[in-house]
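WP5 quarterly update. Target: Elongation factor 2. Source organism: Coemansia erecta. Length: 799 aa.
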Amino acid sequence: MLLGVLRLGVLRLGARTATTALVTRRLYSSSSAADGLHHVRNIGIIAHIDAGKTTTTERMLHYAGFTRTIGDVDSGDTVMDYLAAERARGITIQSAAITFGWRDHQVHLIDTPGHVDFTVEVERAVRVLDGAVTIVDAVAGVQAQTRTVWAQAARYGIPQVVFVNKMDRDGAEWQRCIEDVRRRLDVRPLVLVVPESAAGDGRGQGTWGRLEGAKLERWLDAVTMERVTYDLAADPSGAIVRREALLPDDPAYERAAGARERLVEALGEVDERIVDVFMGEGVDGQHVRVPSAEVRAAVRRATVGALACPVLLGASFRNVGVQALMDAVVDYLPSPADRPAPTALVAAGKTDRQVIVAPDANDKLVAFAFKVIVDQQRGPMVFVRVYAGSLDARMALVNTTQGAKERAQRVLQMYGDTAEEIPFIPCGHIGVVLGLKATRTGDTLVHAKHPLLSSSGAGGKAGKKGESGGLQLHGIAVPPPVFFCAVEADSPQDERPLAEALASLTLEDPSLHVSADAETGQTLVSGMGELHLDVVRDRLLNDMRVNASFGAMRVAYRETPGQVARAAFEYVRETAGRMAHAEVELEVAPLDPEDEEGCGVKGERDAADGNMVEVADAVVDSAAANGGTLQGEVLREVRAAAAGGVRGALARGVLLGFPVAHARVRILRLGHISDELSSPAAFRACAAQALQQALRASSPQLLEPLARAAVRCPAGALGAVLADLNGARRGRVLALDEDAADAEVKVVLAEVPLSAMVGYASVLRSLSAGQASFAMQVVGFGAMAQHEQQKVLSRAHVV
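Structure tokens (predicted):
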């Protein structure tokens, strides 16, 4: 009893210390100590929707001493979900950053959305993280969006810790979740804790379902060989955590020893040093004798090297297991100094060279802007990750992506929707900059006197606006929108407020596109899904108080040539008393999206729509035939202008004006080139007109976005769900499985046209008496049947 009281006193003292560190050392990030970088963790919380990301984050903030009470998602009083739309819907819509202290470390945490419509929020968060916590629902296991966000983090090589949450729910099965992690995420799990007992045989070798409360609150730590008890009876907030060393005569010792054995064996497969310790003096091949410090160090090496991932268990809503997760963040996830230094491109003549941006506080500033939000009082708030040097208030900067000079008026450290002004953002840290006017998501910011600034770019001798140059970090890939709708101001007086509001939203959200329909004059808003556009509508009408009307939700198609076609166009026009003459002949052909070689055509595919543009070698009529001399510089400009005209024209097809995809365009001939009459603008316009003619002659087809949907439904509703997917939804069933947690629940995996999924949620509820659910993700574009294409064209009043 006395030991428990002493342990409680130490833990509470630790909590007070953490709180003091947060309040009095909020400028801890401004420390210039040599080891300061090793005490920093830039992490994100990623998972499928409703896995418990925000709930877990709220507990972290409470245990770190940041909040006095624990926020609740259902009550709408969380620190991280501060938007009105987030609190009303009970979901995270945009990523939010916060900084807190834990065990003398500074943690920059980004809480991300779990819905597929907001996947770009996850993408730009993981772009700047050093580690991540992936939360898995103990009942549902690894879900569709879990795999998506895991893959997003894996693309950047980010080490991750898995937290199996909701262990207090009926049907929770931690062993199945671990196997899910191994099989579906393709990673080696390192199980660090196990329940002390479970339903079944009493040793956890079975389904861990309904447990008595006391058993839920006891865990065995395989690293330290201790029993960990969460005394919720004494303190429901979970602040009282007792650790007790396990002795050989303890009934749970055998179970803990088995967990330690499996952990050491798993580490031995990826780490040679733990093998040496295991076989060394004093251990003699006994797993339980391996020192805890050596096990912890081996887990860290395996995690930082992305060779394996630690797995912890808990129930965030019940306040169980979150402190151990926070310890794992500090113990196992890397600091900025542990991560490979990013590479950047530096313009070197006509080519680019790569340089390493080392995390050196004494270098000139190199920072990456990964997020922008617009505050009504502060203006644009640019979230940055500093990779080299430090970003000081009032510092003169250059945006090398946009080719613009900037000045950081103030720098802030964020705490959800509140901020504290700090003197500078040090190397390896995340912060916010005020006063930047031209900076967007994905831009690179450098010190105005950085030695690698290109003289032809914006550095030093500032280039023209929009002219990029100098050192640039790799940007962020933003997927193309798949849904759109029209929006119109209710009156002429409302047009300007609407335009300003849309500009603010597109600045904040790079996956939101605003364009004008040239034929109807309507303003079109394009996004990633129904929920995405519904949130945009809600923010415009309720948050920004814009008077506007929205049209029906429509799907963003693509257009593609149906066959090979050629066209020639001659351009003759007099402008400002000068005659411009150009002629372009080109060929357009369909390009198989699966053909990686591009059908033997030289050139590179466009990353967004898979198009390829090539200018043939012998494209120019002889100079003698054109009656003039032809200079090499003129020829290069004309070739580049014609190719640019083609690429610009591919943005609008001839059927419904959607972008052209999977097209191969080969410019065969450029005519009427001379020093006197040649104009790059003329050849650009001529090439665009020639492409339009060729597309009309190519029997163009519509491509519709395809979604991969995972539908979970009770067995009694399976027939109705399958009939609907195969019939009205025009889907193709790929797989049919039983749910791992419940044999009475079936999981249907299908590929379905996205247009057929508009309003599917309400239809599915009707088919299953409200018991079914689904998740889907756009996977690409596919050819549309001719009769379906005719329906679309007829509705658009084309036919």
